[in-house]
Amino acid sequence: MALEQLSDVVQRCQALSDDSYTTEDHDVFSISGRTCIEEGNSAQVLSIVLDEKNQDMVRCMGWTLLPPLIQVLLKKRDEKLSPCLAIFSHLLQTCRPKELLIGLLEQLEHDDPDTIAESLHLLLNPLQKVLLCLGSRKASSLGMTLSSVLDQLAKLPLPHTKEQEEDDVFSLCRCCTDLMDFVKPFVHETRQNLLSSENTNQKAGEQGRGQEDELQTELLKFSMKTLSHPLLELQLRDPDTLAVSPLRDFATEILNTLSAIGESVSSLVFQPLLKRKQVPGFLEEEVRYPKESLASLAHLVFVHHLAADTFPSVFSSVFCLRCNMEHVCLLLSRTEESRIQKGLELYEKSLVRLEDGSLPADLLQIKTFLTVPQNLVKVMTMCPQHDLRTRGLKVLQLSIDKFDTEAKYNFFQYMLITSRHSGVEGYIIKNIKIQIDAALQPGKSNVWFEGSQLLPLLRKVLSLPDGPETDLLQYLDRVMESLNLLRYLVIRDKVTDNQTGIWTELCRIEDTFLKPLRVGVNMSRAHYERELHDTRETKRGKAKEESVISVSVGSEKLPNMTSESQIQALHSALHTFDMIESVLVRIEELTAVKENL
After folding, report:
1. How far from 443 is each of 63, 200, 363, CA to CA, in Å?
2. Is 316 exposed, middle or buried (0-12, 13-18, 19+ CB in 10 A)?
3. 3-state SS, residue 369
4. Backbone conformation region of residue 451, classed left if phi is above 0, alpha if psi is from -120 to 50, else beta
5. pLDDT at 560 over 70
């Protein structure tokens, strides 16, 4: 039935010009032709399509046969494959490019990863041929095609292990390779246009500039989008780990594409500090160069050393760090683990190029040098991934090591004010102790970590956030490191030398730190002893089946647990208060002995 309908409409249209075909002719040809292919009569359809008398009709209506043809080609059924492939090839040669483009792009849309990969592999080459047929009018169509392809690529799972990339279990590697083969002729054309415009006079350059800019702009948008996804999501492997890496090759090709279309990789990386040229026309600065894409580019250059041979070596390590701080700040402000990891890697690679103690205090006047540590604190304290928290701490220490003594001093002050986390504050106080110890070594004296300059920093350290009512368990790390620092100072610094000024400050410390801490320890111990007594009484009075209880400490309700576990937790808290008190007593003994000398 469908074959008869197709034959009838073909016979009727043979006597008409292509502008005389009716809507009904289009509908009958499309429906009957598709049905014939679906029912296995593709050989008969091939005969009709190849008939010389039908070429005008095929040119106008043939593209409507694409959906069933592509379905057959994707399924790769041997008995239908050959005639359908022949029909497909003839349609690509005969039909109008714009209609073919629409038909092919419609067949790209899938949700199943396997189908997505197969359809991209099948259709990218035909799409390339169709676009090349559009001549100088191809730019917007290329942009639409690349956008559709990248939307499909984003649906594919990413390989997370070396083995997954080697085996290409999700076909992403093949798709990326196919994609770069697809864009090559357009990149080459843009490159030739740029070279040509350099060799023509000003007038000719202005006349031909519009189309060149459009093609260049579409390829720039494509490159920027791929830098954001998939490249920012992927964990590339170095040649030592994976000798042949299609994904690393893909990243390299994207950087080569940027260079080929007239974009300097170094200018893009350093875009935050180097004033960009004014680009007329299509895109505003931040849309043309998305910050996340530039951060991904910086990571590829400094961490994976891609495009290193094209990167100028005239830039100092401090200048590179200043530029990369913008990228690091952006990446560490994200919540996705892939971005956090890349931010930490980029920051670390930027720091290791520097000598210890080489960064001056002036850099702390730059916003990112204060924002990045705040983001690091969030990573160290809130990131669910333990490895990233550990690496965040490592990078924080590395950054501290690179500051000179004045910068360290100012940085410590800033962190004590802003971090608002006991563990981080305790870590900073430990670093302050290290710097004081270094300053007290023979011949290593410096003005920042001894004498009158040190005292304002010590006053920040030797204080309780909420006076006697400070939650000592919450602030345990800070309190213990403060006590350890004070104990170190009274042991290390002689009363007669008083290099740190601790002995002239001792009365003040007693009033603002030690006395409130003693009161706080006594109040906390009394509270927890009462809680322990009540819990024991509750345990005695409850039946075994009602042994799960809830206890509130201060304003915090502790999670439900057995009475035995609750008693153990309360004993642990009391032990903590004993530990604080023992250090307090030791400090009192040391100061009493030294003051009497």
Report:
1. 85, 68, 27
2. exposed
3. helix
4. left
5. no
